[in-house]
# Entry
Amino acid sequence: MANLDIKIREAELTDLEIILTFIAQKSEFDGAKTLLAATADQLQQALFSQPPLVRVLLAEIEGTPVGFAMFYATYSSLLTQPCLWLDDLFVQAPMRGMGVGKALLKHLAQIAESTNCGRMEWTVNAKNVAGIAFYEKQGARILENIRVCRIDGDGINLLAGK
# Structure
């Protein structure tokens, strides 16, 4: 691993375009490019409303953003504690394996610790072998007995009775 000076910081309004670029790159990596519908206006509202719906950390090397983590607070009734949900973690391909992802996760763990979170959680594609290995190396347990349930778009409207 290279000995890089990785800086982690909270995203600012001026970072909207780079965040959108990272979201697009992640959607392509995930094979979900056709599902990408994010806009700058929607992202600005989510990140900078009061209170914000979601937060973003940027990883920078020599002032250049090379990765991001998007996260928000959740709650566990079993733990009766807040939790941290990592929605997206993405590092640009040339920077993978150089400690950027680990630096982002470490910063998230510090946020979770400082806000008394009982756990951090996220999903990983079952086919992302490198990602799974990376997360396990950081101490994550991959929960095989839990499945993501999803209702979106028309399904929400149908369930809501519309």
About this structure: The two ends are 53 Å apart (CA to CA). The mean pLDDT is 95. The longest helix spans residues 100-114. Residues 44 and 50 are 11 Å apart (CA to CA).
